[in-house]
């Protein structure tokens, strides 16, 4: 099985350890993993901002880089949703690209969905001495139906206890450009998320979208919480979470 790992911009620039953790998980599962060297943005920020032309250009670039593999795996619900759900509609009227977009979309999966649904992993290499609470990202949950998969995988991590927070499906307030354009509203939303995390009493908050996690971590620290760790699910599953 040959697959392309679409690392995502935020992972590449802000926390490469997430990409390395995803790579470890996939390789230990027996996959041949290719990381396209020229990959850049999936186009989701441009799409959300209404820049359809740039979003189309980035979609075509990504498709050309990813279409040679059996599967495409993305450690981000947001980027996976863009490739699976937006690319086909974005390029639907382009005879040269419509079928290619549909083909790549059909082979693309968010990381935990791929591990749980396609590979059906019954073991993961990670261990975690403590409790975690899980934040469901909007795109992963509502766009892709990713809900049970990360929890099933976390249940296989040695020593880990899952402590569900209230309103775990509620937005963290990031929303890409939303957090910039509507800062006050975004802050109020992430404050609710931070309060839910604190009430859960877990050692770490875990999620599948680095954008959400960076937003949550930034607000936790500004609120004075220096104890709660903020980890991508790939880091926990692979046993590669930062100290």
Folded structure, characterized:
By secondary structure, the chain is α/β, with parallel strands linked by helices. It folds into 2 domains: 2-117; 124-238, Rossmann fold (3-Layer(aba) Sandwich). Helix content is 52%, strand content 15%. It contains 13 helices and 8 strands. It has helices at 9-14, 16-28, 44-48, 52-66, 77-90, 98-106, 111-118, 138-144, 148-154, 177-181, 183-200, 210-222, 233-238; strands spanning 2-5, 32-34, 71-74, 108-110, 127-135, 158-162, 204-207, 229-232. The strands form 2 sheets. The protein has a 4-stranded parallel sheet, sandwiched between helices. The chain has a 4-stranded parallel sheet with strand order 6-5-7-8, sandwiched between helices. Helix 7 crosses helix 9 (148-154). It is globular and about 55 Å long. The two termini are 33 Å apart.
What tags apply to this protein structure?
four-stranded parallel beta sheet, alpha/beta, 243 residues, 52% helix, 15% strand, Rossmann fold, 2 domains, single chain
Q: How does the helix and strand content classify structurally?
A: alpha/beta
Determine Rg (CA atoms, Å).
Answer: 17 Å
In percent, how much strand structure appears in the residues? Answer: 5-15%
What are the secondary-structure elements, in order, as H or E? EHHEHHEHHEHEHHEHHEHEH
Query: How confident overall, as mean pLDDT?
Result: 95
Query: How many E strands?
Result: 8
Summed up, the helix count is: 13
Trace the largest sheet across and list its strands.
Answer: 2-1-3-4
The total domain count is 2
**Helix proportion:** 40-55%
Categorize the overall geometry: globular
Distance between the termini: 33 Å
Please give the largest β-sheet.
4 strands, parallel
Uncertain runs are none
């Amino acid at each position: 099985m040959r697959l392309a790992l679409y690392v995502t911009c935020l992972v590449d620039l802000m926390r490469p350890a997430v990409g390395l953790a995803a790579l470890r998980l996939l390789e230990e599962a027996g996959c041949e993993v290719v990381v396209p060297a020229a990959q850049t943005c999936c186009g989701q920020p441009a799409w959300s901002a209404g820049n359809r032309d740039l979003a189309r250009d980035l979609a075509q670039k990504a498709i050309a880089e990813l279409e040679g593999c059996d599967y495409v795996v993305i450690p981000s619900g947001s980027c996976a949703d863009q490739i699976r759900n937006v690319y086909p509609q974005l390029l639907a009227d382009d005879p040269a690209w419509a079928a290619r977009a549909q083909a790549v979309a059909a082979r693309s999966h968010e990381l935990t969905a791929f591990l749980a649904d396609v590979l059906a992993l019954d073991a993961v290499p990670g261990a975690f001495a403590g409790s975690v609470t899980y934040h469901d990202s909007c795109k992963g949950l509502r766009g892709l139906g990713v809900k049970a998969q990360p929890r099933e995988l976390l249940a296989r991590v040695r020593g880990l206890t899952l402590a569900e927070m209230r309103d775990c499906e509620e937005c963290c307030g990031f929303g890409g450009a939303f957090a910039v354009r509507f800062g006050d509203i975004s802050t109020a939303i992430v404050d609710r998320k931070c309060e839910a995390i604190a009430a859960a009493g877990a050692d770490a908050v875990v999620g599948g979208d680095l954008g959400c996690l960076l937003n949550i971590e930034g607000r936790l620290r500004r609120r004075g919480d220096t104890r709660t760790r903020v980890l991508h699910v790939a880091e926990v599953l692979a046993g590669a979470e930062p100290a």
